[in-house]
Amino acid sequence: GWREAVAAAAGALQAGGLVAVPTDTVYGVACLAQDSAAVRSIYSLKGRNGAKPLAICLGDVERLYRYCRVNVPDELLRDLLPGPVTLVLQRSEELNKDLNPFTSLVGVRIPNHPFMRDLARACSGPLALTSANISSQGSTLTVSEFQDLWPQLSLIIDGGPTGDIQSPECRLGSTVVDLSVSGKFSIIRPGCALAPTVEILKQKYGLVPESS
User: Fold this and answer.
1) Half-sphere exposure of 186 toward its Cβ, with a 13 Å CA cutoff?
2) Which CATH number covers residue 30?
3) In the chain, how many domains are there?
4) Where are the beta strands (DSSP E) in the chain?
5) Which pTM was predicted?
6) CA 82 to CA 26: how far, in whole Å?
7) Of the four, 20, 31, 94, 182, which is 20 to 30 A from 6 by CA?
8) d(CA 42, CA 21)
9) Domain that residue 38 falls in
10) Which residues are in the YrdC-like domain (predicted)?
């Protein structure tokens, strides 16, 4: 059942494991962001360049204020989250120094996916979250598509396909937008929700693209 799956995944994470999870975009791999050894394991699993940052995943907007310095209205956060958007903000002192030690920023994800939100709420600190694939390979929409990673994972949560496996748009991942500079935004990755995200930032909140 659902509760058992959330409890099993939370237990595997608390034990330092890596767990494959469905999100509202593509499949992800999560670990506890405050667990430095688990963060290192994610990089080695993906064969990922250590200078590429990991996002954190939370269950609710309220928790974001603990790990980030926010310089946009709360209403803006709630217009975009939960959803297929990663917001890049200044990180706070609360966040593990070993997570992305090369940058003062952090990307925050609150997926619009009930399992992910329940799992994030079941863990004491934030999750570190990245896509379930080898770096530079395509993102995955089903658990069978990342079979080569299975042996290194503590647990795999199969939520079925996260999108239309025939559609390239479904593999774009979240739209990543930097909101760390007051009054401005910059798009780091267009992702799957670019147009509605930009419309909210420009029309409703009057933010200007950082290049302008």
Assistant:
1) 8
2) 3.90.870.10
3) 1
4) 19-21, 28-32, 55-57, 68-69, 85-91, 105-109, 127-131, 155-156, 175-178, 184-189, 208-209
5) 0.96
6) 15
7) 94
8) 14
9) 2-209
10) 3-193
